[in-house]
Amino acid sequence: MQTWAKRGLQTAFVTGGLLMLGTGIASAQENVDPDAAPPAVDVAASVPIKADQNKLATPVKEITVPKVDRTISTDRVTSAVPTRTAAPVANPLVRQAGERLQGTPLQNLVRGNTIQAHVDVPINICGNAIAVLANTEATGDCSQTTHRDGTIVTDGAGQALAGNVVAVNHVLPVQLTGNAIAAGGNATTNTDAQQVSTTGGDITTNGDKGAISGNVVSEQGATPVQITGNGVGAAGIADANSTADTFASSEGDVLTSGKSSSISGNAVPIPLSPLAEVNGNSAAGAGNASTDSTQTGTAVTGGNVDTNGDPATLAGNIAEPALAGPITVDDNAAAVGGNSTAVSDTSNWSKAGGTKHTSGTGSTASGNVAGAPISLPAAVGGNGASLVGNALTDHANAATSNAGGETYTQADKSVLSGNIADVPPASAVDVCGNGATLAGQAAGTCENDVKSTTNGYQGTTGNDSVISGNIAQTPLAAPAEVYGLAAAVGGQAAGSADETKLVRSSGQPNTQDDHGTVSSNIVTAPTAVAPQVFAVTAGLVGNTTSDTANDTTVIAGQGPKAYGKKSSASGNIVQVPTSTPAQVFADGATLVGNNKTTGDNDTDMKAGGDALTTGEKGSIAGNVVSAPVATGTQVLGWSVGGGSNVDAFSTNALSSVAGGDVNSNGDQGAVSGNLIGAQPAVLPAVPGNTVAAAGITNSDVVSDTNVVSGADSYSTADDASVSGNLIHVPANAVAGVYADSVAAAGNATTVTDKTSYTSAGGEMLTEGSGPLTAREMTVPVEAAAKVARIPVEVVGQATTLGTSDDTQLTGEDAGTLRAAQLKGLELPKGVDSLLKANEVPAFHGLDSKLPVNQLPNPADLAALTGQLPTSALPAVAQERSALPVNGGAASLSPNVQGLPLGQLLDAAKGLVPAGATERSLPSLPVTAPALPVPVQLPALPTERSLPTLPVDGPASLSGLNLNPTQGLAPQADERALPQLPFNAPALASIDPANLFQTVTGSL
Predict the structure, then answer these.
(1) Which parts of the chain have pLDDT scores under 70?
(2) pTM over 0.90
(3) What is the Cα–Cα distance from 845 to 858, expressed in whole angstroms?
(4) Residue 103 pLDDT
(5) Contact 587, 647 (CB under 8 A)
(6) Which of 369, 251, 362 is nearest to 307 (CA)?
(7) CB atoms within 10 A of CB 7
(8) Would you indicate the residue range of the signal peptide (predicted)?
């Protein structure tokens, strides 16, 4: 063999080994020939540095830091920051080996496999000022732009171990601009800075008809860092005025395929887009610091993913972990023996990933998708803290974060294909607008607008398949935050926040399967949770205030849809949606001082939704197991004070909903279309309580809560077996400690208006024919307990006012009011409430009540002929008389025709309580028709005590079931009921054919 040939082969083998191991010095794509194959290994890193317009002052002199503008890189080294990073020089050994292999059987030694790793770290340092025992001022107008192309085009079709790609395209820009630091001097900055860093590109390959070909693993990262506009004054004065903008991206779609292949066309994109920022903060120690800054940041990574696994084995699968979310520490102020002020406006956008599409039709273990996107914006901003100093902030924050996207796949006539696994947590963490001080003054102000979302619609099919088209997902939407708080010890603190927040995790799972086996089933556990603490104040020998508003929307998942017609063990749904807010807000507590907190809350939470499936003509198909859980845990409007004045004001609107309707079909099926459910709804309500010890406390709360777990269930099962059955256990528990006041040598007042709606389960409807088919069974569980409107006075004054209107629905319950837990009083259908002290029932045919200071319509009276219990209608009085309001009934003028005087006087005596005032009695008519029988109206209750119930009254009056001795007697913790008359006229005019309804509630 010729010497040159031997040397060429040796060089090829040695170089090929180094390239595959990634240890050689590689060549980047120079795109001289767009049709040329990419290099096997392309590894490059660069650190472009730009430093300009920075100042440093010392007692010796003030200097301008020398300008730096260069790139440290494995690429060509240049003195100027490139607008496009240059490609590295090709290794001569590699170039010569490639040239000598052209036209030989070894020219395709690497078969289009590619390893690419690009990392760029641009650094921009501009407009900073540092003063040490001297004064300095810096101005900066600086920008930096870098770009590196990461596009890859290769091919492994029809080959083994070919066309695979491992790529890293990452930018990490660092912006250090507009900061002022003063130590024993004065430092001032005025800076405007921009930084743009981009990389990436589409990755295109192919593994059709290949083996272990066309697979892609790609990290696409953009992680910018901003440290801008901060001011630090230590025995000096620091003043920073700054604007900063950062844009970083590593974008690109992933396009591959694995048709008719084995272990090919799989894709693992890894988009990462977190931003890290420390901007506009102010810190003063025995000095002064102030900042005024505006900063924006954008990070975008990844793109759409498209592949295919028809028909194939272990092909066309996608797994995408993703991370998005700005992480910021902006506009906080801290002072120790000094003064600190921070004012800023922050806006950030972060996006990672996109739509995923694949297919596994006619395949085995192909076309599956696994997603794990995380959206986690986190912010610490607008907080003020002082120690024997003053700290003030005014902060506005807007953040949008999105990870992942919609998913589409299909797996007809396949095995173990087209399945989707989705773990998409979305959160938002904020510590915002808080103020805290120790022997000083601190105020935190924040306006916060945040959107955090992950993934979206999840769709697949599993027709004529085995273990295919199934979906498993665990959506989690969970904002966690503390904002608008104030705490003071020997000082004054204020917290203020106005928050708008949307947190959404995943979307609707939808799958379809006809003639499948163990296919198109859905298991979903969407969780919506919101631990939030806001508008809470606390003081110890101090003054605190808070004024905070919250508007939060939390959505976890959506209603699942599955179809399993003519299938086996398919189209079934198991769902466990939970909605569990945990909020503490508008509460104040102070020991010696003044405290005022105001909190307005509007929270809407939903987990899951309506479930729809079918098991028609199926076996073990279209069944649903549903276990939604909904709660409404809140502690709000408490005022607690000792030797202090504490006011707590709040409005509350909460909706917490888990699950929804469930619909199925088991017609002509076996063990199909069955619905099994447990739907607990729990409402622990504790609003508007107050405690005063040697002080004055006030609580004023308006609260409206809606807690719903599950809803209606429908199924059919014609000509079926063990199908269409409904088994439900709705559980409804309401417990409340609210509107209570405790006063010990002080004054405690609470005014609480509470409305609640709590529903567990709903109607159940099924129909069908066949053995053990279309049966219903429900076991409702219900409990209610409360400690409400109870004044406790210990040498003090405790006042409780307000109302409660509570509705508690359990299962197919038509709806009853259980606020007072009273039973046993039945009124005719159409009567909305018990009679008041100045009312008698309206007669059928009258368009006015008797008596209400007006005469009845004569036409109406004529229409009553034969309906009243007397033989003739009474005459109408022609004169007016007045009922005395003081002095009893002795002077009553009997100007009523046809009414026995003696009975009238006796009835009048019972109307007038001892010591009645002018406002204590309702107005009576001065002219009225002669009543057929003596009438005695009930005495009016006083404000603090009510007359006792009669124990020997009639059991009923003309069909009106009073039953006063059973169920109406007050419990130990309830006020007595007003006295009911036992000489009432027979209410024969009420139509006895009317149906009766049970009405219970507080009187």
Answers:
(1) 1-38, 75-108, 813-1003
(2) no
(3) 11
(4) 54
(5) no
(6) 369
(7) 11
(8) 1-28
